[in-house]
Design brief:
This protein has 175 residues and is α+β, with helices and mostly antiparallel strands. 42% of the residues lie in helices and 14% in strands. Helix 1 crosses helix 2 and helix 4 runs antiparallel to helix 6.
């Protein structure tokens, strides 16, 4: 779940650059280039043939509304989010503003699960200064509950694509 920005695995190069500049305005251009290169290289895992991982993402509608890098950058980024994927190993949903209060208002999180049934997975929480990984069964259960609540409140993947395409048109100046 991401309430503020496009998840890194789905960011376009221009969006990633704009985010990096916003996070750390003092970074040298070469440092930004390297970080963007690493971010984009990580995306290759979603395009591998065979056993590519499944990614289910829910973004807050604010992610679509918040202009990062200007209209051209946002138009490209939102179009990338809205496209139908083949193979369909990435599912995108939007949590609309009208869904009201929800249990993930405390911030973003990532749930990582693995093929080994004995491995319960982990929850990753990240902030500007630190990151923590939760592994205790009660912590994982709580985040599974939060995730289930978000999925129930979010638009379906199809309706999410419709909303994202609408935002893309806005950024293109077509409405």
């Amino acid at each position: 779940y991401e309430p503020e920005l496009v998840p890194g695995l789905l960011q376009t190069e221009a969006y990633a650059r704009a985010i990096m500049r916003a996070w750390q305005p003092g970074l040298m251009a070469a440092d930004i280039d390297r970080r963007v290169e690493i971010r984009l290289a990580r995306q290759d895992v979603l395009r591998q043939n065979g056993a590519s991982p499944q990614a289910s993402c829910i973004i807050n509608e604010a992610v679509l509304r918040r202009s990062v890098g200007g209209n051209d950058v946002m138009h490209e980024q939102v179009n990338v989010l809205a496209k139908e994927r083949d193979p369909a190993n990435v599912t995108m949903q939007v949590l609309p503003f009208n869904s009201g209060a929800h249990p993930a208002m405390s911030g973003p999180f990532q749930i990582l699960t693995f093929h080994d049934p004995g491995d319960l997975g982990v929850v990753h929480l990240e902030s500007a200064m630190t990151a923590i990984t939760l592994e205790r069964p009660e912590e994982l259960r709580r985040y599974d509950e939060i995730w289930g609540s978000l999925q129930a409140r979010a638009l379906s993947p199809e309706d999410s694509r419709v909303m994202m395409r609408s935002y893309a048109l806005r950024y293109a100046g077509q409405f």
